[in-house]
Model the fold of this input.
Amino acid sequence: MKKSELLAPIQDYTSLSAAVNNGADAVFFGIKGFNMRAGAKNFTIRDLPKISRIAKEGKIKTYLAINTIIHQEDIKKLEKILKKIKETSIDAIICWDPAVIQIAKKLKIEVHISTQASIANSEAANLYKKLGAKRVVLARECSLKQIKKIKKETNVEIEVFIHGAMCVSISGRCFISQFLNGKSANCGECQQPCRQKYLIKQIHGGKELEIGKDYVLSPKDLCTLGFIENILEVGVDCLKIEGRNRSPEYVATVTKAYRIVIDFYYENKGKKHFKEDFEKLKKKSLKELETVFHRGQSSGFYMNKPLNEWVKSDGNQATEIKERVGIVSHCYSKIGVAEILIQGKKTIKIGDELLFQGSNTGSLRNKIISLEIEHKAVKIAKDVDKVATKTISPVRKNDVVFLIKKS
Done:
């Protein structure tokens, strides 16, 4: 069986390194302008050669999302950007507007059709194949049974979402933000009004009702790790993690969790005790996923149409939070020691877990097993300027250091 590609989201060089270091086969990202995550940090077109170089060194592919609506006045700018992309080694673009498909085809740029196209059947998939697409990202509303049939009846590559935020509207084509705030979700500017609570108010009478206990326009996040083997059995070509607005530790943790489980499946299926060991590994990995940002977990549409899969409370439901404690002021790579410049009178101690983040380091967790202040071993560092600690993997000068806490 062909091994499915694991695709991770990035929005800066720190999350790119996090994806590379934790087993992604490919990354997808946007540049300022034509992408559905205008609120993310995003890269510029000048970053493309560097992104491509880092990815190639890490032996992973790069996909650039140009998946917004293209207005008439955008055509010339679009042509200019696509010509620049052609000059780099970016592997493909993710799009759905026919204008992008047409220009990319002329320039011989590989095209993947975005989930924005709502492809939910083999006829649509085959049509995009004829238009020049190598891959289609299926609508998130497809069930596992439907995906299996589509895969069987088309020879275009199939990509599906396996983790991350879901939208209340079909394939994310929502107009609430446009109507309420003048910010179009279809141009990447969604203000996420769906993540709020609402009241029903009588037009005549003035009485108000709160809509239940839940945020009834705000779905839980998709999580397929618990039944990932069912998706792997279908033989889809690519498994996509959503989250270009999310943190480097989200990219690192989610990518690593799926990487470990997917690899175990392919390497051990059919062996003695596989089922028991696989279930234990999934359970452990699901606990890891709970430590980073999420709004609860849902199986989405894979098994059936979801009912009452709404967020119960506002915002993040992660079991862990991070608190900035300082930066790496010096590295002693030969002995695996980092000197931390403590900022804001923070306290760290033996047994605490630190998170190091930087453009080359990515997102690295490190449990404190030793502390030294002025070459003297201590158990706690409090109200000091600098402290040294052992690190399990290389970190770099100016990496930001966080203390991991239970939420």
In short: The CA atoms of residues 28 and 63 lie 5 Å apart. The chain has ten helices and 24 strands. The first helix runs from residue 13 to 21.
